[in-house]
Amino acid sequence: MKLFSIFGNPVSHSISPRMHNLALNGLHVEGCYIRTLLEDGSQLIEKFNALQLDGANVTVPHKEHAYKLCDQLDEFAKKVGAVNTLVKKDNKIIGYNTDAPGFFKAIKSFGKINSALILGAGGTAKAIATILQKNSLHVEVLNRSEGRLQYFKDNGFPSYSWEEFEPKSYDLIINTTSAGLSDNSLPIDKEILNTLMQKSKFAFDVIYNKKTPFLNLAKQNGLIYKDGADMLLYQGVLAFNLFFNNKFDEEKITDYMKGAFYAT
Ligand code: NDP
């Protein structure tokens, strides 16, 4: 019997248990995926071991803790600096980041993209910037404040705070801030965002259970847009396959996990 969990704080809203349990059942794997509220991120590995888990996912605010505490890191997760998937292998806990490839799979439906502007400079922005750079896109970063931009500057991304920014043309605008999540705010000044959107083709918001003001503005500007639901789905599909050493068909896992988005 395999056992998996998601760790986060809060974690009660997470649909990961539903996604993974649907895939476990559908693929006839004897296993269960639970949720664990973790207040102190430094206890992540202790908890993982106490529960005798085979694998886990990590969500806000523990992804950096996970990065620091794993026995071993996948090369890509090392570059991003954040881990959302833990896999037990030969008595070691290995850390991966599937948020980034999950995002990349989600934007495949847009078609060819050469350039992107990322709004926000937190953990999700790092993951997205790294995967886009790896796939040879030109990526720039715009953040409210200067503090978090250093990582991006050090890794070769033209990066700006609000004060320094002049709108240019990008194929894709990505909101990785939590603006619009629990309020009705936009991630940047409306006039600047309108100017940016008039010059671009696609918009993506990592927020997934609501049509944010950012996406509403994208719609008004005639852009092709997407919320973060597919990113969430695909990070789960990729994590599931890491738990099982890639032995299952990705499309089958995807079909089972999709059910979690329609269940009430
Ligand atoms: P962080 O806290 O690491 O970063 C947040 C960033 O957003 C910071 O750069 C911050 O700017 C900026 N920001 C926050 N509030 C505002 C605001 N009101 N206006 C403008 N900028 C703002 O967050 P994460 O990167 O970990 O997560 C961001 C979002 O991504 C969350 O909503 C999370 O739920 C979502 N997410 C979705 C996933 C999916 O699968 N769909 C996967 C992972 C995350 P400053 O530096 O100035 O404070």
In short:
The protein has helices at 16-26, 44-50, 63-69, 75-80, 99-106, 123-134, 150-154, 190-198, 213-220, 229-243, 250-262, and strands at 2-8, 31-37, 55-58, 72-73, 85-89, 92-96, 115-119, 138-143, 159-161, 172-175, 202-205, 224-226. With 264 residues, the chain is an alpha/beta fold.
Would you mind describing this structure in some detail?
This protein has 264 residues and is of the alpha/beta class. It contains eleven helices and twelve strands. It has helices spanning 16-26, 44-50, 63-69, 75-80, 99-106, 123-134, 150-154, 190-198, 213-220, 229-243, 250-262; strands spanning 2-8, 31-37, 55-58, 72-73, 85-89, 92-96, 115-119, 138-143, 159-161, 172-175, 202-205, 224-226. The protein has a six-stranded mixed β-sheet with strand order 2-1-3-5-6-4, sandwiched between helices. Strands 9-8-7-10-11-12 form a six-stranded parallel β-sheet, sandwiched between helices. Strand 7, helix 6 and strand 8 (138-143) form a beta-alpha-beta unit. Helix 1 crosses helix 10 and helix 5 packs across helix 10. The radius of gyration is 18 Å and the shape is globular. The model has no long low-confidence stretch (mean pLDDT 96). The structure holds NADPH dihydro-nicotinamide-adenine-dinucleotide phosphate.
List keywords for this structure.
binds NADPH dihydro-nicotinamide-adenine-dinucleotide phosphate; 11 helices; 6-stranded parallel β-sheet; single chain; 6-stranded mixed β-sheet; 38% helix; alpha/beta; globular; 264 residues; 12 strands
